[in-house]
UniProtKB/TrEMBL annotation:
This is Tricarballylate dehydrogenase. The keyword Acetylation does not apply. Gene3D superfamilies: FAD/NAD(P)-binding domain (3.50.50.60), Succinate dehydrogenase/fumarate reductase flavoprotein, catalytic domain (3.90.700.10). It holds the Pfam family FAD_binding_2. InterPro entries: FAD-dep_OxRdtase_2_FAD-bd (IPR003953), FAD-oxidoreductase_2 (IPR050315), FAD/NAD-bd_sf (IPR036188), Succ_DH/fumarate_Rdtase_cat_sf (IPR027477). Keywords: FAD, Flavoprotein, Oxidoreductase. GO terms for molecular function: oxidoreductase activity.
Amino acid sequence: MSDYDVIVVGSGNAALCAGLAAKERGATVLVIEKAPEDMAGGNSKYTAGAMRFAYDGKQDLLPLLQNPDDHRLPDTEFGAYTSEHFSKDLLGFNDGRPLSPEQQYLVAQSYPTMAWLASHDVRFEPIYSRQTFQKDGKHIFWGGLTLAARHEGVGLVESEMKALRALGGEIRFDCAAIDLIVEEGRVCGVVTENDAGQREDIRARAVVLACGGFEASKALREKYIGEDWGKAKVRGTPFNTGAGLEMAFKLGARAHGLYEGCHATPMDLHMPEYGNLDLPHDQRKNYRKICYFLGIMVNAEAERFVDEGKDFRNYTYAQFGRAIIEQPGHFAWQIFDSKINHLLYEEYHFADAHYVEAATLDALIEKLDGVEDKAKLRRTIDGYNAAVDDAVPFDPTVRDGKGTKGLTLPKSNWAQKIDKGPFRAYPVTGGITFTYGGLQVSDRGGVVHEEGHEIPGLFACGELVGGVFFNGYPGGSGLTSGAVFGRRAGYGAAAQ
């Protein structure tokens, strides 16, 4: 006798979508979460809530909006973001690999999944503050990323929890899954443990693992990604320590995807070791530092190490977060002048943002701790300034082609001289959000055994699905992937 039809392990976006899908198909559903209620929601709660999906124009977006009567909409140009464009963006991070089956499914199901969420009253709003520039009286969206949940990741999790409970789904907190119950080769429940060490067996017809990757485990980061990654700041929850992977591997699950890959982002060097949910939702994101495209980044050896203007930051921040953690000392400085101060995102003006400021470049350089060769840094900046092409106008709404000439490492777009004081520099490191290596899952979300068959009764979604991302990803794809594969796993589990 089963206590539930489906148990979902985890309470983030993917887990809640799995639970919602299973409830939609008539299953009795229990979502269990290791964290206490105030820290539940997995990594999803720490995100900006943006979701990337294919759409053909404004008419596709209006049904998804929290407020379709927003007065700005008539003066907004969303453009289109086709399936072909989404596929091309993913291919840009595949290091020559073709689209994986998981990526193809992500693209194909991205808009239907958004519409499905909206049908459960999980709705979105345009990202005017971070994804638009004003031009000729219009709000121009760029980079193919247009919508986010109201109140960001916290709002997304709260909306999905509300939708799940409205259908009769149950959620238990302080309820960690420590093992899977298996009888006659079939997963039929979970052994749980609360913070007081009390254990309970909860039985089900199917179990969905949706409890994240291994980014919060220093040992597993060093094992799979590299020694440098022991120094990474964990952008999100401290609870994603690879427990789902370990339970699945114990049953012979097949590893899948790029285990040395992860989603990273430039973060304030002096942020806490983990994300801080004690901050209000509108401040939590402010540890990120992703306006590097408006200035330059230099390492401890006084050298630039990436093309800061290679592409819109949606397409580079994951790669550049990784590049920073792999620099000497695991840090870098982002340097700006006052010309672009009004374009810096709010995270740079946040009360707890760490930076140094000076009226002159020489005075600023003297304040850059960790950079020993100050004269070399001055030469690096002077060389960059001399290479800037002043003939091309600066336009942050497009890849403006305003680059440098003659540098071994160019800046391809948005290159402006750093010459107007006062000057600021922000110390950054690499922050890890989630890991790419996971499990192989079937076309209905079932976990695949090393021998090629599904493990009966076991499903997976979210970060536990391998093969979705490789050498980075276009921003906003992570939450969409969680929703897409969560929905699929929930339907698959309910069919049991």
